[in-house]
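Records of this kind hold a single protein each, on a pair of labelled lines. Below, a sample record shows both lines together.
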Amino acid sequence: MFTSQGPSLRELAVQALSSVERGYDLLAPKFDRTPFRTPDRMLDAVEEALAQREGTFGSGLDLCCGTGAGLGMLRRLCRDRVTGVDVSAGMLAEAARAHPQGVDLERADALALPARLWNSYDLAVSFGAFGHFLPAERPALFGAVHRALRPGGVFAFPIGAPIPVTSPLWWAVAGFDSAMRVRNAVWRPPFVMYYRTFPFGPVRTDLRAAGFTVETVPLTPFGHRPDGTPHWRLLLARKPGV
């Protein structure tokens, strides 16, 4: 929930009428006091699943790291270099304040990671950022991560079960996505943020097309739906080894 220390309605409105980069520059100082920050419960569940499944890693990359919520997790899981990448200078400034040591921060477009980052990481993660990429951009996004990973490296991120149409949450996110489409049709620059553009089936297909093998493990702290399927899974996309 928003708090009195978080952004005002006016600040949120200004952000929503800006570009993605500029919007997050404006929101950065108060971002961690909004509901948009990845909850610690999710970060802890992902860390536990990775530690149990994979053990430790060499170097780690947090793609679209924002204010650095996932960087502490990477520092605990990785023995060597940890890097956070984001397009927003404001968000990176907050990440630098939160992690003054032990982390490299790079301002870069996730769709075109610089060549100096290629073939450098054993683990890549991302939290809460995929709504900023249109479905047509997924091949470029996954290709960029594939290039950044070493052979045998893993791209890991949580993915939720489909929301049933009978749920009020389905109607809430559908309404939000519709409002964003109208906003982007009539206002420039666009602010790309959608909640229903990252379904598991097409995502798995695009990951495989980018050269990954794909598996999932349940994030057990979040429980299961009535049909027995998990509410949240950790997707593990692996770059084949040599």
Remarks:
- The mean pLDDT is 93.
